[in-house]
Specification:
alpha/beta, Rossmann fold, five-stranded parallel β-sheet, 5 helices, 5 strands, about 50% helix, about 20% strand, globular
Length: about 120
């Protein structure tokens, strides 16, 4: 059974990294380049999971997370952050993010965390 993931990051390289890791495992990937784009794409494709960068220009990942969770309280969002963003990670978890990944990350950690989020959501 394939799962769809919306990968949100303003850096094309980071989107490509996550896309490559997940497509090798059979995930269907959709991409968004910022928070506003993420909200629109989420409504359009209703992915099983969103990986959301915290820091993006225009609309932050935290703002997009809040908007997505307001429109769909069951949305599953995995935050992606750089080192030193602990305060924002805590805030994201308070807004309903399921978990977080810290850049730079290892492919095995990405897969492990994505699977964990999808499994816990399936049990909910």
């Amino acid at each position: 059974m394939s799962r769809s993931v919306l990968v949100v990051d303003d850096a094309a390289f980071m989107r490509m990294m996550i896309r490559d890791i997940l497509t090798r495992e059979g995930y269907i990937i959709h991409e968004a380049v910022n928070g506003r784009d993420a909200i629109e794409k989420y409504a359009e494709v209703r992915p099983d999971l969103v990986t959301m960068d915290i820091t993006m220009p225009g609309m932050s990942g935290l703002e997009a997370l809040r908007a997505i969770r307001e429109s769909d309280p069951s949305a599953r969002v995995l935050m992606v952050s750089a080192m030193g963003q602990q305060k924002m990670i805590v805030e994201a978890l308070e807004y309903g993010a399921m978990d977080f990944l810290v850049k730079p990350f290892q492919p095995t950690k990405v897969l492990e965390t994505v699977k964990k989020c999808l499994q816990s959501a399936a049990r909910a």
